[in-house]
Amino acid sequence: MRWTDRMTMRRKEALAGVLFALPWILGFLVFTLYPIASSFYYSFTRYNMRSAPLWIGLANYETIFTTDSLFVPGVLNTLYFVAFSVPLNLAASLLIAVLLNNRTFGIRFYRTLFYLPNVVSIVAVALLWQWILDPTFGLINQALALLGVEGPGWLTDAAWSKPSLILMGLWGVGGTVVIFLASLQDVPASLYDAALIDGAGPVRKFRHITLPMISPAIFFNLVMGIIGAFQVFTQAFIMTGGGPSDSTMFYALVIYRKAFWDIQMGYASALAWILLVMILAVTLVVLKLGNRFVFYGDTQS
Amino acid sequence: MSRSFLSSPSPAGAALPAAPTLPPARGRARVRRVAYQVLVQALLLSFSALFLFPFLWMLSTALKTPQEMFAAVMRLIPRDPQWGNFIRVFSAIPFLRYTLNTAIITFGTMAGVLLSSSLVAYSFARLRWPGRNLLFVVLLSTLMLPGQVILIPTFILFSNLGWLDSFAPLVVPAFFGGGAFNIFLLRQFYRTIPFDLTESARIDGCREIHIYARIILPLCKPILATIALFTFMGCWNDFFGPLIFLTNPDLTTLALGLRAFQQQHTAQWDLMMAGALISALPTLVLFFSFQRYFVEGITLTGIKG
User: Fold this and answer.
1) Chain A (162-181) residues lying within 8 Å, Cβ to Cβ, of chain B
2) Residues B224 and B201 in one domain
3) Domain residues for A7?
4) A116 — contact with chain B (CB < 8 Å)?
5) pLDDT tens digits for A77-133?
6) Any domain includes B296
7) Residues 6+ positions from A235 with CB-CB distance below 8 Å
8) What percentage of chain A reaches a pLDDT higher than 90?
């Protein structure tokens, strides 16, 4: 092929490349980059969508940090949720994945079953659990009553509402389980055989082979779990509406109220940016720590 | 990572290679292995009871009369199963309307996602152009972006466009990229197809759009099916998008509409559970029919990519 031909082919390819990617490039500009930039701008304005945004400098941030009565509960409730639900979900899904990684009777049935709650909409899940957790007629308290125990108002008692939502979340660990399971199945059998010859027991095998080999999956699930947990919304929105006495008023609910109840778009944008900074900060810390514990094998993958 | 896609379809479940088996053991080792098996079964059984029971309770509630639902003694199997509850749901709320709305949004989004993400991924996977690698990093970083940050300006944008109270905010964006995650998934898959296959077609003067449509896409049916399934699930079950963008009751989706039973004076748990079960039927059927694609799709979520 002649040199000029190759040049035209290259240019054609580059042109085709940009054209093929164009839908995403446009979508990114309009539905991601522009919203990020304008949300940053709105956060310095007062904007009720009826009149034009009014520049008020740092006033929104000042109000948030000084007089907003929902900001502090929102942050604390969210941190509580992240701190308990993420490790609990990781531990539970890892345990289930290890169990599912056995050749045993009915394993296909079990694998299907644990994923099933993820197929149902979160609305249906939230409504179902609201019914199960009903203080008088709910399944759990009725069962407890049979044992002579008077169960608490799971969702109506401020002391129990967050733990209830966190425990309920365990029903949805199926997605994480599948990722762990895939990772467990990638651990070469030869490593376990070698350990067996060396006389290692199951605990040592798990500690020194399984955990390091699946550490990338643990790390991935940890980071995605944190990002997701910071944005917890639907369960609380449907089941408790943020109550009782703001005990499930998570940060995303605060944003939602300010934006769509009070139509304070500037103020809500400022809240959203604070959330972004919090998520970024926590994720960066985890990424930093993670590099020490994650084993990527001989070659970085 | 995508070997399994190229191989012939295997029955559901077989997609997960089973754990390694050890050579048959004797004596004490064998006793220990049996004990281990018993322990595994016991744990699996008790956990799966915990996972299954809420579903059974859902079905049980859906079949109860209000009297039995609020009775002092609870029963799993209703005395007089009210199968009619499943029909009453349709008259208690505009259930058919909601189903139709949900279906329109879901299929519209699926069309957008499949078309758009498969085109864009082709560009990132198999075409060389300046800035490609940088933009791919940008694309990946959008995966980590919390939706809360772009929510408000997006709402304002659609409001200014006059798109609120229409399906447009939920469907149109799908045609512009189809989701970073789907692009990523497809790109990883496209790259496993030998480049010789397309290079010769290109030298013969075949146009890129034809290479994409006639060579690449036919090889990608399994991954496209996976993406179609996940998109279906995501849209059918989506709550937040419709909550924000749809306030007209005529446009309500199933996920939104189910709450109607909750907001009434006394919550009608029987109808609510019946409605939740019917609304979950399409996703449940799809899940049971195409389980293999699900497992592979989730497995491809980054760590193995």
Assistant:
1) 171, 175, 178-179, 181
2) yes
3) 1-42
4) yes
5) 999 999 999 999 999 999 999 999 988 888 888 988 998 999 898 999 999 999 999
6) no
7) A122, A125, A126, A129, A165, A168, A169
8) 60
C-alpha to C-alpha distance for B219 and B213, rounded to whole angstroms: 10
User: Measuring CA to CA, which residue among B278, B281, B300, B175 is closest to residue B227?
Assistant: B300
Which burial class, exposed, middle or buried, applies to B31 when counting CB atoms under 10 A from its CB (0-12, 13-18, 19+)? Answer: exposed
pLDDT on residue B52: 93
Q: Are B240 and A233 in contact (CB under 8 A)?
A: yes
B40: chain A residues, CB-CB within 8 Å:
99, 102, 104
Residue B54: which of A23, A109, A128 has the nearest Cβ?
A128
Q: A133-182, pLDDT tens digit by residue?
A: 988 888 899 889 889 888 898 999 999 999 999 999 999 998 899 889 98
Q: Are residues B132 and B67 in the same domain?
A: no
How high is the pLDDT of residue B147?
86
Q: How confident is the model at residue A2 (pLDDT cuts 50, 70, 90)?
A: low
Residues A122, A235: contact at Cβ < 8 Å?
yes
Q: Are residues A162 and A214 in the same domain?
A: yes
Alpha carbon of B125 to those of A23, A177, B121, B189: distances in Å?
A: 15, 29, 6, 9
Residues B242 and B131 in one domain: yes
